[in-house]
Design brief:
The chain is an alpha/beta fold. The chain folds into two domains: 182 residues, Rossmann fold (3-Layer(aba) Sandwich), CATH 3.40.50.720; 132 residues, Dihydrodipicolinate Reductase, domain 2 (2-Layer Sandwich), CATH 3.30.360. 35% of the residues lie in helices and 20% in strands. It is built from twelve helices and 13 strands. The strands form two sheets. It has a seven-stranded mixed sheet, covered by helices on one side. Helix 1 runs parallel beside helix 11, helix 7 runs antiparallel to helix 12 and helix 10 packs across helix 12. The longest helix is centred in the C-terminal third of the chain and has 19 residues. It starts with a helix and ends in an 8-residue tail after the last strand.
């Protein structure tokens, strides 16, 4: 897998503009405005919307590090801090995260419109998926490519609306959990076990009352499941007790995939793929770097690394799981979850 990471870095380095010099460590210790960005850096200015998730500090530290050559000169230059309005675990983070990103030269702005005048591409990081459609529309109307952190929205209907707007304004977007790009998950996706004939995935399952149950944290394990299985799930049913929740999905070709949400006990991420050639267990979490590499490739090429269809199916899976819960574990068809045109 080290070879794979090197090849991605080589791709980014080969496609970079000639003459871009690495910035010294001291130059990132003080704030700067977009007007101070050199001509060579134009097109590589990243803006953040929402400073209420730990992702923003992790991404800023990585991208704005003086030796971050694997990101081809892309830097976070400005941020609009407002995220969730009423989720305490999010709102209480904003002051500290704002101060932290400022240490890396990020300018704090007062509105999304102001942000859009200073940046070329956007990371929508607001932790509250209920705000994503409204915020994403401003970015799409401005013609800026955008990565939307999980969850892409707080409902399948809003997720559909975001992709519809993306197509209307001809501006690409994508969304993903960082677990999708963990090396071991990508190896399975690429055929390590042969054809995946079934898979199990698990993750912590913290619940936020403002979002459907799996949207807030279970999405990590669900996306891991779809990374291994691919699309084609037709129905789900959900089993619940005090310790765990298990959602069983049946794919169109008869394959079965399960998601286990861990509510108590040891909180870990993982899974197993059952293949035509072998069985493989997911390795340790790969961190944020593989996701950031994919985001930068997307900003450069405009080609999303995750399809609209797969993202929407993940959200249909999670909404169907809620519907099954409300029907005492009955089987629910994913087709019934999508908006009727």
């Amino acid at each position: 897998m080290k070879k794979s990471n090197n090849s991605r870095r080589q791709f980014l380095q080969q496609s970079s503009m000639a003459g871009i010099a690495l910035v010294s460590a001291s130059s990132w210790s003080t704030s700067f405005s977009s007007s101070q960005v050199t001509q060579a850096e134009l097109g590589k200015r990243i803006g953040i919307i929402g400073l209420d998730t730990s992702h923003v500090t992790a991404f800023t530290k990585a991208l704005n590090a003086p030796d971050a050559s694997q990101y081809n000169g892309y830097k976070i230059v400005a941020a609009y801090p407002r995220g969730s309005k009423d989720i305490l675990s999010s709102t209480e983070r904003i002051p500290a995260y704002t101060a932290e990103v400022q240490k890396y030269g990020v300018e704090i702005v007062s509105s999304i419109q102001d942000l859009l005048t200073k940046v070329d591409v956007v990371m929508l990081e607001t932790n509250d998926g209920r705000l994503h459609l409204e915020q994403a529309l401003e970015v799409l109307k401005a013609g800026k490519r955008m990565f939307i952190d999980k969850p892409i929205a707080a409902s399948l209907k809003d997720a559909e609306a975001i992709f519809a707007a993306s197509e209307k304004y001809k501006v690409p977007v994508f969304s993903a959990s960082s677990l999708r790009f963990s090396p071991s998950a990508q190896e399975i996706r690429s055929g390590k076990v042969g054809k995946v004939i079934g898979a199990d995935a698990y993750s912590p399952m913290k619940i936020e009352k403002t979002h459907p149950d799996l949207f807030w944290y279970g999405i990590h394990g669900v996306e891991t499941l779809f990374t291994m299985m691919g699309t084609g799930c037709k129905q789900v049913n959900r089993y619940i007790n005090e310790e765990h929740e298990v959602v069983v999905g049946v794919w169109n070709d008869g394959r079965i995939g399960t998601f286990r949400g861990l509510k108590n006990g040891k909180q870990e991420y993982g899974g197993t793929a059952f293949g035509s050639n072998s069985v493989a267990h997911l390795g340790p979490y790969g961190g944020y770097d593989p996701l950031l590499i994919k985001i930068i490739e997307f900003f450069q090429t405009g080609i999303p690394p995750v399809s609209k269809e797969e993202t929407l199916e993940i959200f249909a899976f999670m909404e169907a799981a809620d519907a099954s819960k409300n029907q005492q574990g009955a089987k629910v068809n994913l087709a019934d979850m999508y908006s009727k045109k």
